[in-house]
Amino acid sequence: MEIEDLLWADGQDNDAGLSEEHYYALKRDIETFPTIVANPATMSARGKLIGNFVMKPNKFFRKIYCTLEQGEIVSTQVGSRDGRSYENKATLYVPGYRSVNVGFLEALKNSKIVLIIRQLDGTMVVFGSKYIGGEIDSSELKTGKAITDGKGTTFTVRSIGRIAPIYWEPGDADKMPPLEDED
Prior knowledge:
By secondary structure, the protein is mostly beta strands. The protein has one domain. It has helices at residues 43-46, 99-108, and strands at 21-26, 30-32, 35-36, 48-50, 54-55, 62-65, 72-78, 85-95, 113-118, 124-127, 135-142, 152-161, 166-168. The strands form three sheets. Strands 3-4-13-10-9-1-6 form a seven-stranded mixed sheet.
């Protein structure tokens, strides 16, 4: 792979933040994962997954809502010389202090998951992989004190790996990620 210029064209959109809809699944429910390009020709190709997620029978990705302007992705390079990698964190805020919020955290607190985050521009990044699942690293449920306070669940999913959360462009956008039919 040849290195390339890393430029920014004047006037491009660069909206920060995450969209409202994201997706998660238990890592153990995924039969086949998209892959990293073996010998990428470009730096852009090095940062993308190819292929689709294939789920085990009767297993699906589930949707998760995040309040606008309350979610964030942070990727931090970690490690020492000749051993650097990335620690990746996605923080989401789900409104409400409800039994389903508590159940979500309780069910997933020690489970390996794959989280697909959709940015405001529609691009998706994946937390967790075939070999290393993401985990809920921290969570907080709050009722708030005053009527003007937020009431909801904030949680952070952490994944580690040799690259930052990688971009994923589904091969079949109408079917990806694999969701349960919504009739």
